[in-house]
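Subject: sequence -> structure tokens, single chain

Hey, anyone have a minute? Need the predicted structure for the following. Not urgent.
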Amino acid sequence: MEIDLIKFLNWLQERWYSKYTIVVLILVFSFILLGTFSGIDITKINKSEWIIFLIIILSTFIFWFLSTRLPRNSKGKVGFIVSIYTENKEQYKKLKSDFIDSLKEYINKGNFRHQFKFILYPDFYSKKIDNQEIAIKLLHKSRAHFMIYGRSRERQIKEKLILF
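Reply:
Had a minute. Here:
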């Protein structure tokens, strides 16, 4: 059985925030490590190999957990969240360069009494915000003060590109 590593890594990247991803990662690492340590006979694994196995599995889980948790505002700063879901990566790049980076620059350039922390939600969280109630809940979880959320779409209407 041949596994295409590039396809697997792309699949992993697209689904990184899913809880199923950590299950798949732990299973993959388990099969690789157990196969490396013992071949097929699990009774051949010694105590130090079990410790290495558990450390790698635990490290994988901790890394996934820390990299997927909701971004938070730093204490003493005014948190400003931008959470705009786009349909594809090209649209996200345009939105980021045209709107998000400019907004961040204006906020950081301003002469405000308090320092701002600009928080950009990943698509996984942006996709979930479809009403004010969810937005407020995530705003409080992030310990932020302001949030811009929504969805950006591109459509061809009468041979004209329309953004909304």
